[in-house]
UniProtKB/TrEMBL annotation:
GO molecular function: ATP binding
InterPro entries from the UniProt entry: DNA_recomb/repair_RecN (IPR004604), P-loop_NTPase (IPR027417), RecF/RecN/SMC_N (IPR003395)
GO terms (BP aspect): DNA recombination; DNA repair; SOS response
Organism lineage string: Bacteria, Pseudomonadati, Bacteroidota, Chitinophagia, Chitinophagales
Entry superkingdom: Bacteria
Matches recorded under Pfam families: SMC_N
Gene3D superfamilies assigned: P-loop containing nucleotide triphosphate hydrolases
Name of this protein: DNA repair protein RecN
GO CC aspect terms: bacterial nucleoid
Species of provenance: Pseudobacter ginsenosidimutans
Length: 552
C-alpha cells in the first residue's frame, strides 16, 4: 500500500506530504484546485515520462517520493531480487527531474530505469483515470479479466512457454525446408562441379610442381649441353681444373716448410680441389637425370591446361584452393542427403509441441468458459446496484482459426444498455458514464483475484450522481476492506464512505498561488460534504444530510 506521498516543486505545488490510510482514501476539492496535479505527480513514480515544464521553480529540481509498505508480497520480493534491489519492508520510490529535463529514478536509493519503474508500479498500484475506460473495449483487457477470475496465471505462463517453443521450432523447420529447396536447386550444378574436380584427381601442389617440371623439360636440351660442357671443363678437358689444382698443390707442397703462410694456402687449395671434384661428380649425376621426353612434356601440358581451366573457372590461383572447393562441394552434397533426416526430426518436435499447446489451450478455454456465467451474473447485479438496472453484460468466447500466444480464444465483452437483447461490443455502444461504472464493477471483481495492494480511481464517478453514486461508494468501501483504495471524486455520496478524507485547495503565498492538501477532521468532513451537496454556504439540511453520510 502507498503510505506516504511527498511532492516538491511540481506544477503549482511548492511542497506537500500526504500520509494515506490503509483503507478507503477520498480526495476532494474544487475544480482546478489541483487534484489532477496530484495524480500527475504520482504518475511520475509509476513510470510516466517526465516533462521539465512541470517545474515550479526552474532553479530547483522536482522531487516526487512515494513510500510503499510491501507487506511481504512475494511478487514484489521477486521483482526486487531479479533486479538486484534491496528488499525491505518499506519500498521508497523517488523520481527527480532536473531543470534541463533530465530525469532520474530510484528504488530504495538504487538507480533504476523507466522500464523497471513501470514494471514495479504494475505490481504496486492499479491507477484508473477517466480515459482508462477505453481499455475496457480492448480484447487484451477483456481476456485479462477472464483469466484473472479463472486464476489462469500459471497455466497461461505454461502455455506461453510451450507456444513460443513451438513457434520457434516451426521457424527452424521452415528454414530447413527453405534450405532443402535451395540445396535441391543447386544440387545438380554442385554435383557437376564436384565430379569435374573429382575426375581431375588433383593432389596437393600438383599444378605448381607440374609447372616446374614443364620448365625443366622445355629447357632440357640447353641444360644438358651446359652441364656436359661444365663437367668436361672440370674433369676431362685438355687442362682439367681438378688436375690443375692438384698440380699446383704439389708445387706448393715442396716449399711448405720454408714459409709459415704456405701450409695455410695449401690447405685451402686442397679444399677447393675436393669441392670442385665434388661439384664435377654432382654435375655428372645431374646430367644423367636430365633427359628430354616428348611424351612426358605432352602429358604435363595437358595436365596444366586442365588445371588452368579449373583455376579460371573457380576464380582461384592454387591447386590447394581447388581441393578446398572440392571438399566444400562434397559437404553441400552430403548436406542434401542429411537434411531430410533433420527435417523429419524437426517435424516430429513441432508436432509434439503443437499437441502440447493445443491441450493447454483447451484447458485455458475450459477455465475461461467456466467464468462466463459467474462474471455476467455478478457484473449485471453490480450494474443494477450502480444505477443501471437495464444494462447487461454478455461475454462471447469464440475460437480462433489458429492458436495465438494467449490461447485459442477470441474474447469479446458485449453490452446492452436497455434490455433490447441487442448485444454489441462495448467499444461501440457504451457511453462514458456507462463505461466508468462498468469498469468499476469489473475491477471490483478482478481485484479479488489479483495480488494488487492499491487501487487508485481518478474521477471514475464521472457522469453519475444520487443513488448510483451512493452504490459506487458502497462498492469502493467493500473493496477497501481487503486493500487500499484511493479515489478522487466530486460525489458527496462517495466522499461520505471515506476512512480518510483529504481536501485539495489553493492558497496564496506572497504573490503566488500554490496547491496544498490536508486531511479533514470529522466535523470538517461534514462541512466539506455539505458544500458538495448545496454550495459554499451549506444549508442546515445539507449539513444534516452530510452528517448522516459520514456517520453511516
Amino acid at each position: 500500500m502507498l503510505k506516504r506521498l511527498h511532492i516538491q516543486n511540481y506544477a503549482i505545488i511548492d511542497e506537500l506530504e500526504i500520509a494515506f490510510s490503509a483503507k478507503l482514501n477520498i480526495i476532494t476539492g474544487e475544480t482546478g484546485a489541483g487534484k489532477s496535479i496530484l495524480m500527475g505527480a504520482l504518475s511520475l513514480i509509476l513510470g510516466d515520462r517526465a516533462d521539465p515544464s512541470v517545474l515550479l521553480n526552474k532553479d530547483k529540481k522536482c522531487v516526487v517520493e512515494g513510500t510503499f509498505a510491501t507487506e511481504g508480497r512475494k511478487v514484489i520480493k521477486q521483482f526486487l531480487r531479479e533486479h538486484d534491489l534491496d528488499a525491505e519492508e518499506e519500498l521508497v520510490i523517488r523520481r527527480e527531474i532536473a531543470a534541463n529535463g533530465k530525469s532520474r529514478a530510484f528504488v530504495n536509493d538504487t538507480p533504476v530505469n523507466l522500464e523497471q519503474l513501470r514494471q514495479l508500479s504494475n505490481v504496486l498500484v492499479d491507477l484508473h483515470r477517466q480515459f482508462d475506460t477505453l481499455e475496457l473495449g480492448e480484447s487484451l483487457f477483456q481476456r485479462e479479466v477472464i483469466d484473472a477470475m479463472a486464476g489462469n496465471a500459471d497455466q497461461l505462463q505454461q502455455y506461453k512457454t510451450v507456444f513460443q517453443h513451438w513457434h520457434h521450432t516451426k521457424q527452424e523447420l521452415e528454414e530447413l525446408l527453405q534450405q532443402k529447396n535451395q540445396f535441391t536447386k543447386e544440387f545438380d550444378y554442385n554435383k557437376f562441379l564436384f565430379d569435374e574436380l573429382q575426375e581431375a584427381g588433383l593432389r596437393e601442389n600438383e599444378l605448381e610442381e607440374a609447372e616446374a617440371n614443364l620448365r625443366l623439360l622445355s629447357n632440357a636440351e640447353g641444360i644438358k649441353n651446359t652441364l656436359n660442357k661444365v663437367s668436361f671443363e672440370l674433369s676431362e678437358g685438355e687442362q682439367p681444373m681438378v688436375q690443375q689444382l692438384k698440380a699446383l698443390c704439389h708445387q706448393l707442397q715442396s716449399f711448405s716448410e720454408f714459409h709459415t703462410a704456405i701450409p695455410v694456402i695449401l690447405q685451402r687449395l686442397q679444399s677447393a680441389q675436393i669441392e670442385i671434384q665434388d661439384i664435377a661428380d654432382e654435375i655428372e649425376g645431374l646430367n644423367d637425370k636430365v633427359n628430354f621426353d616428348p611424351q612426358q612434356l605432352e602429358q604435363l601440358n595437358e595436365r596444366i591446361s586442365t588445371g588452368y581451366k579449373l583455376l579460371k573457372k573457380h576464380g582461384v590461383k592454387t591447386t590447394n584452393e581447388l581441393l578446398e572447393i572440392r571438399d566444400q562441394l562434397d559437404n553441400k552434397l552430403q548436406a542434401v542427403l542429411n537434411i531430410d533426416e533433420a527435417i523429419l526430426s524437426k517435424e516430429k518436435a513441432a508436432a509434439q509441441l503443437q499437441g502440447e499447446a493445443v491441450a493447454l489451450a483447451s484447458k485455458l478455454t475450459a477455465q475461461r468458459q467456466k467464468q462466463v456465467k459467474p462474471l455476467q451474473d455478478t457484473v449485471n447485479k453490480l450494474l443494477s446496484q450502480v444505477g443501471m438496472p437495464n444494462a447487461r453484460l454478455q461475454v462471447d468466447i469464440q475460437p480462433y482459426a489458429n492458436l495465438q500466444d494467449h490461447g485459442a480464444d477470441n474474447i469479446e465483452f458485449l453490452f446492452d444498455a436497455n434490455k433490447s437483447n441487442r448485444f454489441e461490443p462495448i467499444r461501440k455502444v457504451a457511453s462514458g458514464g456507462e463505461l466508468s461504472r462498468l469498469m468499476l464493477c469489473i475491477k471490483s471483481l478482478v481485484a479479488q483475484s489479483l495480488d494488487l495492494a492499491t487501487l487508485i480511481f481518478d474521477e471514475i464517478d464521472t457522469g453519475i450522481s444520487g443513488e448510483a453514486a451512493k452504490q459506487v461508494g458502497i462498492i469502493m468501501k467493500d473493496l477497501a476492506k481487503k486493500r487500499q483504495v484511493i479515489s478522487i471524486t466530486h460525489q458527496p455520496q462517495i466522499a461520505g464512505k471515506a476512512d480518510a478524507h483529504y481536501f485539495v485547495y489553493k492558497e496564496i503565498r506572497g504573490e503566488q498561488i500554490k496547491t496544498n492538501i490536508r486531511e479533514l477532521s470529522r466535523e470538517e468532513r461534514i462541512t466539506a460534504i455539505a458544500q458538495m451537496l448545496s454550495g459554499e454556504k451549506p444549508t442546515a439540511a445539507a449539513l444534516e444530510n452530510a452528517r448522516e453520510m459520514v456517520m453511516n
